[in-house]
Amino acid sequence: MRALVISSAVVGALVLSGCQSTGNNIGGMEYDKSAIGALVGAAAGYGLSRGNANSSAQNNRAAAIGAVLGGATGVYLDNKEKKLRQQMAGTGVEVNRNPDGSVGLIMPGSITFDTNKSNIKPNFYATLNKVAQTLAEDNKSGILVTGYTDNTGNDSINIPLSQARAQSVASYLAAQGVSTTRINAQGQGSANPIASNSTPAGREQNRRVEISIYAIQ
């Protein structure tokens, strides 16, 4: 199984190609989920720059990131995926493997948030507690939380709402013991739908939060 690992050296062009105006500034750079290498580095680089806020050299390193394949790391992510599948059984949360090798959790809006709200539904806390438990077992993973909406409304409404939802999940994970230096939250609005927005059921699927778990080195 493919896995992504943070490297201390990288081609600068990869970082530049991953920079987009998303409103998510990490280590002096902005990142978007479409730039896989940049996101992996953001997860670890964010903690690096936070922990060394006064060191420009460290901040430069936070921007110098890359993606490589790692066998041991693949085993690590395999184990996380297996455990999360067991924990999420029957909760409505889908656990899969993303094309980039990260472990992905899809949390539909029907169980996470009310319409136009960013407050986590009380009955979803138990599920998030299980996720937090697995993520807090070690410090070997970087975590990207991404919020999405359906296509109702426009970006001026949807992007802040999706960002607020992602931040709510990220903040809750942190409150349960997952280090904030490992977590990045971003809102993508109505981008990347996983179902048709032409039906209520499809729009409900698109109103979701995704968690991507990357192995870091």
Please summarize what this structure is.
The protein has 217 residues and is an alpha+beta fold. Helices cover 42% and strands 18% of the residues. It has 2 domains: 64 residues, no CATH class; 129 residues, OmpA-like domain (60s Ribosomal Protein L30, Chain: A, 2-Layer Sandwich).
Describe this structure in words.
Strands 5-6-9-7-8 form a 5-stranded mixed beta sheet. It has a two-stranded antiparallel ribbon with strand order 1-4. It has a two-stranded antiparallel ribbon with strand order 2-3. Helices cover 42% and strands 18% of the residues. The chain has helices spanning 12-18, 36-51, 56-63, 71-88, 109-112, 125-135, 155-175, 200-206; strands spanning 5-6, 25-26, 29-30, 67-68, 94-97, 103-108, 141-147, 183-187, 208-215. It is α+β, with helices and mostly antiparallel strands. The two termini are 17 Å apart. The longest helix is centred in the last third of the chain and has 21 residues, at 155-175. Mean pLDDT is 76; it is low at 1-69. It is globular and about 45 Å long.
